[in-house]
Amino acid sequence: MNLQENITRIKKIIESINENNFEIEDSIFDYEGDLSNSMGLKIKNKKNDENFGHVVLCKLIYGLTKDPILKKYFDLDSKQNKIFNNENCLYLHDMFVEPIHRNKGIGKIVLKQAHNKALENGFDYIVLGTETDNLVANKLYNGFGYNEFLNPEEKYKFYYIKL
Ligand SMILES: CC(C)(COP(=O)(O)OP(=O)(O)OC[C@H]1O[C@@H](n2cnc3c(N)ncnc32)[C@H](O)[C@@H]1OP(=O)(O)O)[C@@H](O)C(=O)NCCC(=O)NCCS
Fold first, then answer.
1. CATH of 3-162 given 3.40.1160.10, 3.20.20.70, 1.20.1530.20, 3.40.630.30
2. 160 or 19: which carries more pLDDT confidence?
3. Which residues form the pocket of ligand 1, taking CB atoms under 6 Å from any ligand atom?
């Protein structure tokens, strides 16, 4: 698949995510403030305020000072990672959908909202990581067109996307 075909495929996936299936509201929750540190994004049921899920975004370099896995396995100085800097790349972590609401497309909505938030704030890339055996998370990120980094170890892998 060439780049253009891949972009078209990803656009179609994103368009097919129908937020109207849910009474969705997104809100920023105070994780550590704003994107100068970390920002939490919560997806709620508009009707009754019930939480569907959330995710946290922070600048990659801030994540590197805080997140033990990122700290241990992500090599910012490698040639491949040189494209990422503190101003262009967000680190997405703590992605979570409430168990009773899983497998209904909410993970995709959470991710889409995170992408919107990153774009609104002028970022070009998102980096994230997950365990290799987390089948659903890997499916979700692959489906969105995230690219796998070289696997730093068998249990854990990172992905990035150009927004
Ligand atoms: C990973 C997680 C956020 C996904 O959220 P979700 O709302 O269930 O995901 P979606 O419904 O949007 O589904 C995403 C993809 O996974 C598939 N999927 C979801 N649940 C699945 C299941 N139990 N078995 C197989 N595939 C599944 C969906 O079919 C969809 O794939 P598709 O686009 O090819 O149809 C959620 O499972 C979760 O919170 N897990 C626990 C925390 C976690 O692992 N977070 C990620 C850490 S990096």
1. 3.40.630.30
2. 160
3. 95-97, 102-108, 130, 134, 136-137, 139-140, 143
